[in-house]
Amino acid sequence: MIDTIEIVQTIEHLQRTFEDLMLRGLKAAGPAEINTLTNIREECQRIGAYHLAERVGAIVDAIKTNGRNGAKALLQAQTSLGLFDRILTLETAHSALAASELFELSVINDSLDGKL
Amino acid sequence: MKLEQVDRKKLMPLLDNLTVAVEDLLITGLTTASQTTVQTLGVTFQESSRMGLLRLGSTLRAVNEEVSRFTKNDPDFSRKRLSFFLNRSWLLAVAIKKAIEENKSDVFERLMLTPSLTPVESIEAVTIGVVKRVASTFCAFDFRMRTTADCGHLKNGTSVVWSCVFPRSPGSQIPPEGYLHLPQKQKFKSAIFLEPKKMLIANVNAALDMTGVQRIMLGETSTVTPGDQFSDWDSFIYWDQQAALDRIDNHTHGPFDLEVELQEEVFFKKWTIEETWEKEDGGTVYPIVTDKFRCEATVAKKSETNVLRKEMEGFKDAKRPPGALFGLMHYEKCKLVLQPLTVFEKKGPKHLMISPDKIDPKALLAALKF
Questions:
Q1: Secondary structure E strands in chain A
Q2: Entry pTM
Q3: Smallest Cβ distance to B30: which of A23, A74, A85?
Q4: Which CATH class is domain B235-351?
Q5: Among B325, B350, B125, CA closest to B238
Q6: CA dist., res. B355 & res. B197, Å (int)
Q7: Which residue in A72, A75, A93 is closest to B336 by CB distance?
Q8: Cβ separation of A75 and B90 shorter than 8 Å?
Q9: What is the per-residue pLDDT across A14-72, written as a single tens digit (0 to 9) for each?
Q10: How is chain B split into domains, by residue range?
Q11: B118-232 sits in which CATH class?
Q12: Which end of chain B is flanked by fewer CB atoms within 10 Å, N or C?
């Protein structure tokens, strides 16, 4: 099972990469950026974020062809990343809150059973 | 704003220009962005606000603020903020254009996010927490309150919030709390909301915000007067965790979701602070273990957060547990993130973000150079 911390690190790495691209511009992106994005795309595939991996792949293709559609690809990938982050975050938050509710319930039950 | 009210001939080219400007910026990069691109963003902000597209306007205002910070080498520049709002501007422009082209008025209204206002004759409420936000050009305060009686459609115990913003000159020496002593248009001083008293607020509008809290908006005829001293703070110290779980369950994800979308007003009766740690980008993380779960509070290293930092350090070293803690909790990067606001001591609420230092009105007036 993939650790949530690991996934969050991938999300943050991708976010930083997008911010770099935005500041420096896609025009200035070269082999180093392609390499970084390719590695992140593979990482996204490994953690099961296939949709996001596809979006990152579209940026790589646009940089290689120096096309104007790179900007659109970057914005779409950023949107997908934000959504992926929210879905994962809310699932994790739900688990954390639900676990503490269950814990509280078990303490009450134990107390009622005279175990405490 | 309704779809029928839209001037399509003016709006469609504006949205097209905005989309192109954002894409141009991403192609060339911010460092080499042309003057025309930056100007287009500025003009679109003004035009969209003028045309009543307030959500798009405020998003573009944030973009322009960051672009301006970047060009001035302002240390407050945030690449994260710029990237977020730039993406949001583009997304809003594309989505609004699509909604207009396809004549989808329900989608258009959702994108406008215009709150529906309900008039309330009178509200009786007490402040349970205060959020302070300070930037180089303004300072803002959110007063988090609970109603203490049924007020129109608002039942007793409803969460309400009133916000005030004060423009501030860069480098101002006036403490943010000083602005609370300036008279509002309705002839009251915002500082009265810090008193442990019932506030009687009349002739207002209320709008349900995205976090389920009623946001109060004052008008020309609104009045605010302090009432009796309040002492029944214990009656508020409760948080319905199951309701928070239900809110997550019922939430529909969308590309416009914010990290504070499902923000909760929380109370913890028992809590302690674990070993703190420093973040790479500045700020101290205070892991808070509550009687329910673990969350984190980050306190930035800025002068305006000195009060909160001092309080948190004091709680960390405290030999006996402090009173119940009230704060705002949201979900960010798979963590439960808390903004501590108040500790309820025996004598009443202690606002953690607000400096207890007395403000000298004479010095305040002199500093403002009236």
A1: none
A2: 0.89
A3: A23
A4: mainly beta
A5: B325
A6: 19
A7: A93
A8: yes
A9: 999 999 999 999 999 999 999 999 999 999 999 999 999 999 999 999 999 987 899 99
A10: 3-112, 118-232, 235-351
A11: mainly beta
A12: C
